[in-house]
């Protein structure tokens, strides 16, 4: 009981420190214009916003799309059957992914897309502080009919605010395992005496928020979803066919739970990074402490 009380107090202290840093940084937030400003405001207000690569029109889009086209054969070759071979790495039993070493070594444009100034400016406005990229993963959902792992309703806990960009690399309809979230305004204030499990099944979530308020993100390939996954309950629907998506995850430079950031798959690829970075890009990459080793990473962490 004492350890639990100490844990909760540490959580409260972390939240207060985060809010204090946000307040002091307000005057230094990058100034956004047009669609970028509207996008950031929607995420801050509702928790998520859906757009597309063409609407974003980032200057690095052409190089990024060329890299994805070169990577396409490997994406299609990722196993997607309900039973994967034993030698195929999976995340939580329902996701296969591209080796992070391959992405960093052979397709650095994919990493650089998530480190361009406009992306970092938007994410800094969403998080409220300068951000670190903690994860980059290209994953294929296995249509095995199971609601497990990230298919359960949850909020992410690496930091007080966790900004994510999810880009569909395949067309996604209701049967394609779309991203789904509950807008902040639709999630009720719970009785302090009622605690929810960290991950919720659909029947449990329906007792908290009616199904008609669940927000589905359906769209063609190159749809992009910006979301604060620490602020909204979200999940990936159980797919009836494969879905391939690229996900970037960002926290503040000093996340609440750094050990969770150190377990991300991106850390396995960073030692192979040879492409030159600007000072801001280098400072925006979360890196393992010098005394840590990528050999100790938990490869089951998404």
Terminal residue distance: 30 Å
Tell the overall outline.
Answer: globular
CATH architecture: Sandwich
How is the main sheet built?
7 strands, antiparallel
DSSP strand count: 10
CATH superfamily membership: q2cbj1_9rhob like domain
- One letter per element, helices H and strands E, the order comes to HHEHHEEHHHEEEHEEEEHHH
Q: Key features?
A:
single chain; 302 residues; alpha+beta; Jelly Rolls; seven-stranded antiparallel sheet; three-stranded antiparallel sheet; 11 helices; 33% helix; globular; disordered C terminus
Describe what is shown at a glance:
With 302 residues, the chain is of the alpha+beta class. It has helices spanning 2-25, 34-46, 53-56, 61-77, 100-106, 108-113, 117-127, 202-206, 258-262, 266-269, 279-283; strands spanning 48-52, 90-91, 95-97, 131-141, 163-168, 179-181, 215-217, 223-228, 234-236, 243-252. It has one domain: q2cbj1_9rhob like domain (Jelly Rolls, Sandwich), CATH 2.60.120.620.
Describe the structure.
With 302 residues, this protein is of the alpha+beta class. It has one domain (32-296): q2cbj1_9rhob like domain (Jelly Rolls). The protein has 11 helices and 10 strands. The protein has helices at 2-25, 34-46, 53-56, 61-77, 100-106, 108-113, 117-127, 202-206, 258-262, 266-269, 279-283, and strands spanning 48-52, 90-91, 95-97, 131-141, 163-168, 179-181, 215-217, 223-228, 234-236, 243-252. The strands form 2 sheets. The protein has a 7-stranded antiparallel β-sheet. Strands 7-6-9 form a 3-stranded antiparallel β-sheet, with no helix packed on it. The longest helix has 24 residues, at 2-25. The relative contact order is 0.19. Residues 82-90 and 291-302 have low confidence and may be disordered.
